[in-house]
């Protein structure tokens, strides 16, 4: 669930005959940060096409974004799936398939929708399925069904990942259900306002979620230490060429890509101001290397610099698939609760991604021992996120419809 806020593609080399040099996105954003800028949108030529190609003047619009506004409209179990597809997932890969029966919804893992070496043990992929299950359960209740969840009904290596059996019951809404359409990952800057410890604790309900705990890191010294570790992990990830490539593969650089694939990460979800977002879309698409540099800079100067607190979901059994599914459900519950209270959340999993990369390649562990120093004894990390009060809202991410992921 790491993020690199730059588009796919390769920057075009400037024509030596041009009178003015082509500026990169990074150069323009630096200029904007210093003194602001005036945007003049040409009516013809390459810039005009770029406006059209990236939807620079109408971000967050089109069929790929309709699920965010239409999820309440569909009745029955298909409507519950319409809420499930709005759940969080690594790199917005949406690794789920649903099977609807008259009295149940089966949730399957689409293993092809993975992030490769970024998630080599499929830890994040299974937690993404857990996030979808939580949304599905909330939506079933709101639509007059009593859901009964059975995780891994065919065993730890079988399919489906979950069976959600339903019986008729009175409709039952909740603050979390009402927040389904408003929940977005906010990668922008957060305000300096702190979040009281009791409010952090109230975000997480671990009762009934066996073996899971939420460890909050809010005090200045440990928060700074975790920030340094997150930066170091991001640095290691971008220096690992295969992880860098796999990390970049899910970025959608044009509006055509967004509308066609309806998944992945986009510039619109990065928490930029409207001016910076428009300018970044108008400029030529950046390379993977430039994207890595920009993400690393954002990690240093925005993500870790403005976090009010970090949350870490821990367990003694991080490799257990049932535990991972339950952790995903817990994460989604935390995010929905935070959204209902005006608190922003941003998934930051580069440390566990490096831990799993080190395990999968057999190299000496670097990040697991360092992370353990910040966590309670016996608690191994499953996922990490930051919270705070956002400076600005963010645009939604593209989504496939319930019909597109139901068989």
UniProtKB/TrEMBL annotation:
Residues 1-23 are annotated as: Disordered. The chain crosses the membrane at residues 28-49. Keywords: Membrane, Transmembrane, Transmembrane helix. InterPro entries: Nitroreductase-like. The keyword Amino-acid biosynthesis does not apply. The keyword Hydrolase does not apply. Residues 1-14 have a biased composition (Low complexity). This is Nitroreductase family protein. It comes from Kribbella alba.
